[in-house]
Design goal:
Length: 464
């Protein structure tokens, strides 16, 4: 009736029925629920509809867009100041008469101070082991955790916490956590890795305790209080390639396959994180054509969903890396791959490049300089410091948080050009230190020759 009245008001003021309004049934109807009334109750294609029973207070039938029909009991909890919805069962498994009887039983339990939902969760969690609790955490978190965090939970619990499998998670004690930490240390794992495993275990147990209503304490928290070794502060890594070691590392890099040369050079000259460079597609690179007849400039605009900070990364590219991208772009057009750095294991370039650990190990063995992909990022930051770059510029280049001011909020499309002179200085300095010569002058002399200029704008886009 309320829906019809609202439609009539619209028609009275505008002289016509609001388009589509007459086809939308009311979301809630109150009636004595019977089998015939349920069969005649139509579902909505866009939202849930409810048939509220006038015989039993709080009982209703929920009808989903997929036409699934569920009995629910809605009750206000005065002591918790919230409304609780209890699932009674499905229709037609439960008739209206049977649903009213079960609803009365649930109301009796609620009147005694018991929440049927919490009791159901407690009963379900009693037999769960730590793997079930981890699966429950991942499922309930949904899109609130990243794919990397989800994989870390699964790997830490499944691979490193095998000693805790097989029994209910409630039976995990403080001594079990201490034995687990001792066992992981004996396996030669780094303190940072052990700390990450214990953090995952702590988070999984916290979720299990909060959802089950269990009154016990988290054993990981208790173990950390009683064992000072578990409370040790993990010192952040500060390793990088020194100026004296950079030529040897660079020379060893040039002996690697072309994919690893390009990939690791790109990481060193941009300061990007490994996963950010791996996710780079050709659609993220803007090519600007010739400029001052010396170089073809390029920009990188990586969306926030691919970065650690969930902020877009805006990065200009210097002349050396622009030439590198030109060369890879020609090959990518032949392979029709969307990836800038595709895996050498796939001949068609259908997958991005994976972990470069083996390449880094070979370079370390050949040069005597051990450097991980993130060490290259720290080396980039170190070069910024030696060139006396403003702190705000360095933070923007590595996509760290910068306090937002009026000027930065309105710079718009000029962000790349503001950073370009700094990136070109950094690139020229790294190449000079690595090779002992001015790479920039050689590049300019090379690209002024018409036969050596590659117009990557003329290359067709790869299939996505």
């Amino acid at each position: 009736m309320e829906e019809q009245a609202e439609t009539n008001v619209y028609a009275r003021h505008h002289g016509k029925i609001q388009p589509g309004r007459e086809a939308q049934p009311p979301r809630t109807e109150r009636t004595k629920i019977t089998a015939s009334r349920i069969d005649a109750f139509q579902h909505s294609a866009s939202s849930d509809r409810f048939l509220v029973d006038t015989e039993q207070r709080g009982l209703r039938l929920k009808v989903t867009p997929s036409n699934k029909r569920v009995w629910q009991l809605v009750k206000w909890f005065a002591n918790k100041n919230k409304t609780v919805t209890v699932t009674v069962g499905n229709y037609p498994d439960l008739s209206p008469k049977r649903a009213r009887l079960i609803a009365q039983d649930r109301l009796t339990e609620i009147a005694s101070g018991m929440n049927p939902n919490e009791e159901k969760r407690r009963t379900k969690s009693e037999g769960q082991d730590i793997r079930d609790a981890a699966a429950s955490l991942i499922t309930s978190s949904g899109k609130n955790i990243s794919e990397n965090t989800r994989k870390a939970y699964q790997r830490h619990i499944d691979q490193y916490c095998k000693a805790l499998h097989g029994g209910p998670w409630r039976e995990i004690s403080v001594s079990d956590v201490n034995h687990l930490a001792t066992r992981l240390t004996a396996q030669g794992l780094a303190p940072a890795t052990i700390s990450g495993i214990l953090r995952s275990l702590h988070r999984v147990l916290e979720h299990a305790i909060s959802t089950s209503g269990w009154k016990g304490r988290n054993p990981v928290h208790s173990a950390r209080k009683g064992n000072k070794n578990l409370r040790s502060v993990i010192v952040a890594r500060d390793t990088s390639i020194s100026p004296h070691d950079l030529p040897r590392w660079w020379h060893a890099l040039l002996q690697e396959d072309q994919i690893w040369q390009d990939y690791l050079q790109f990481l060193l000259l941009t300061g990007m994180r490994r996963r950010e460079a791996t996710a780079l597609r050709w659609e993220h690179i803007e090519r600007l054509g010739k400029h001052d007849r010396y170089q073809i400039r390029a920009n990188i605009t990586l969306p926030g969903k691919y970065t650690k900070a969930n902020r877009p990364l805006l990065l200009p590219v210097g002349p050396f890396l622009t030439r590198l991208l030109q060369r890879r772009r020609v090959v990518a057009a032949v392979l029709a791959t969307p990836w800038v750095f595709w895996s050498p294991a796939t001949k068609d370039g259908s997958k991005p490049v994976a972990e470069p650990k083996k390449a880094c190990s070979r370079i370390a063995k050949s040069s005597g300089v051990k450097a991980s992909p993130h060490d290259l990022r720290r080396t980039f930051v170190g070069v910024c410091d030696t060139l006396d770059m403003p702190d705000g510029v360095t933070k923007r280049l590595v996509n760290h948080s910068v306090p937002a001011g009026v000027t930065s909020r309105h710079c718009g499309g000029w962000e790349h050009e503001r950073l370009r002179p700094h990136m070109e200085r950094i690139e020229a300095d790294i190449l000079r230190r690595a090779s002992g010569k001015n790479y920039l002058e050689g590049f300019m002399a090379d690209v002024t020759a018409p036969t050596n200029v590659v117009d990557i704008g003329s290359v067709s886009e790869p299939a996505k």
